[in-house]
Amino acid sequence: MTSSWIFASGLIATVGVSTLVIAHLRRSLQQLLTTLCGHADPASFWTAFSVVTVILVPAIFAMGSWPDCNAATPAVLLVAEQVRSGLIGLVLSVLALGWIVSRFIPRSKA
Questions:
Q1: Which residue, 13, 33, 22, 31, is CA-closest to 80?
Q2: Residue 110 lies in a domain
Q3: Is position 25 within any domain?
Q4: Is residue 67 a part of any domain in this protein?
Q5: pLDDT tens by residue, 46-101
Q6: CB–CB of 46/14 below 8 Å?
Q7: Angle at the Cα of 104 (from 100 to 108), degrees rounded to 5?
Q8: Which residues form the domain of 17?
Q9: Residue 71: inside a domain, yes or no?
């Protein structure tokens, strides 16, 4: 397997996992943002912005991880290393999104 195919496989796997996370979070995020924004139009923008961010940040992390195609290293381990980098980006982007959104949720005074 050539380094180009290994790189593409890791990038596709990373974007695929990010897409699955977005598919899971999108509806809840849209509802939460509609409540926080007070109207569906700004909530739709911020949801789209969040989707793009949560997909692109892991892709950028994955693209920064170049496979070192050594004959002794199996291709699956090279792809796994790239996906690991992408997952770090995914976790960071989801945590940042959660932290930012949580700052706008009104707190009740106890």
A1: 13
A2: no
A3: yes
A4: yes
A5: 999 999 999 999 999 999 987 776 768 888 888 999 999 999 999 999 999 999 99
A6: no
A7: 130
A8: 3-102
A9: yes
